[in-house]
Amino acid sequence: MYISEGNDSLSCKLFPDTLRRVAIHWMTTLLAKSIQSFNDLADSFVLQFAANKVKRLKVADLFDIKQAKGESLKSYLAHFHNATVRVNDLDQKFFVKAFQKGLRVGQFSDALALRRPSSMEEIRVCTEKHIGAEEDQADQLEAEHQPPGQRESRPRIQGGQQKGEAKHLVQALPHDNL
């Protein structure tokens, strides 16, 4: 709700209607007659909730994000994506360069460099394919290290379903239908 040039009394009465959960609780803890004007209310509110303000990042901050040793590609992509949503500049070429610069040296970073992606969407598609291969390889290694009697046969994923989706679907089916 936007109140333009309203009087203080009206602004103070309408302001609580714009609040939710914690902010409403805070409002109820204000001492009686501690607010003399809407500016007092606004200042108190900002002081109380200033720490909750999401810090905006600059494009240059993205170049500081690095894939840690042992960090999965999936984790790095999620970490990088969480940072990009906090950047005001929407120029994809900087996002792409920063993502590539932060990748650990390896087959995927080499393949991505040869591909020359122009958007984060292209990177996401390539990354998801590689993540799927990475997870399949990890599952295969895990299965090889289990004693033969304890090996579990897992359903193969088809039709582009993610592992979690397929596992959920298998668990959701009645066992007599399997």
- Could you tell me the radius of gyration in angstroms? 26 Å
Number of helices: 9
Q: Any idea what the shape is?
A: elongated
Give the total of beta strands: 0
What structural category characterises the helix and strand content?
A: mainly alpha
Low-confidence stretches: 157-178
**How many domains make up the coordinates?**
2
Sheet of most strands: none
Q: Report the order of strands and helices.
A: HHHHHHHHH
What fraction of residues sit in β-strands? under 5%
**What kind of assembly state do the chains in view correspond to?**
single chain
- In whole angstroms, the N-to-C terminal distance is 54 Å
Residue share in helix: 55-70%
Overall mean pLDDT stands at 77
Structural commentary:
The protein has two domains: 8-52, no CATH class; 59-151. The chain is 55% helix and 0% strand. With 178 residues, the protein is mainly alpha-helical. The chain is elongated. The termini are far apart. Mean pLDDT is 77; it is low at 157-178. Residues 134-178 are annotated as: Disordered. Residues 13-104 form the Retrotransposon gag domain.
